[in-house]
């Protein structure tokens, strides 16, 4: 672990930073420093805030790789606050290891299915997360993945590199276009809506969406609220952008894919567990669907010998939906602000209510 003294990075803060966070600098606890455990290296915007907050003793798992379970259990001992990532399973065992001091868990993610919320709630621990700030970046990546999959960009790049590009051929590397198409979005929440807004200018003819309830703002994209069966059977492109819940786990299975058009493109940028990957493989190899683009898988990382990685009509990305420098910086700062709010017992910028 790397322990970071509260004043160590003070000199790196600009005057504007200092003005913004002066209420947090000088935070005190009863006679001792509050212990914070950070489970991974995070963007410097977040570390600056934490390390200049008086009253905090920050311990960092100083690696870009996930903290091993044994080290996580050791690192959280006596912690008042934990700043974690999506890959860190925060369950009863971790909460027990932390002990009664634990006031707040701040996750550097919009997802929270890695947190045992029932156990956390039972112990009166507050939770911060980072919604909204990654909406645009994730929507952009989803559109890029959809286009790369539909227009077979990875195949094209490979053909250029391996000498497969000989002369122009009328049907070589043909794919599917958005103009005049029907797009179905499963889950028209913040990210789903942002994806829809970006797709409409491509000339999409119909925008279908499904979910628990109709959305008032769907009118902005001429969205039609339909049943899941209707969406699956009528869409040329299906984009999954829902939360992972007991209801959505394994939602995209053999029955789901069997209802899709055999010319349809399937894209998932939500959570890997929403998809039954064995059934997806079968749908792709049998010609039941045309192609799939995935930014999320189960597990992550996907083993290099996984059957999906042998397919030309399956584009797999390493969960990079929010991976822009600016977005990750804002996520780091927000997760730090949430943590400090929880330690102080004051408002958190983005507190999860559950």
UniProtKB/TrEMBL annotation:
Pfam families: 2-Hacid_dh, 2-Hacid_dh_C. Residues 36-351 form the D-isomer specific 2-hydroxyacid dehydrogenase catalytic domain. SUPFAM superfamilies: Formate/glycerate dehydrogenase catalytic domain-like, NAD(P)-binding Rossmann-fold domains. GO terms for cellular component: cytosol. Keywords: Oxidoreductase. It comes from Sander lucioperca (Pike-perch). The keyword Transmembrane does not apply. Belongs to the D-isomer specific 2-hydroxyacid dehydrogenase family. This is Glyoxylate reductase/hydroxypyruvate reductase. GO terms for molecular function: glyoxylate reductase (NADPH) activity; hydroxypyruvate reductase (NADH) activity; NAD binding. Residues 143-321 form the D-isomer specific 2-hydroxyacid dehydrogenase NAD-binding domain. InterPro entries: D-isomer_2-hydroxyacid_DH, D-isomer_2_OHA_DH_cat_dom, D-isomer_DH_CS, D-isomer_DH_NAD-bd, NAD(P)-bd_dom_sf.
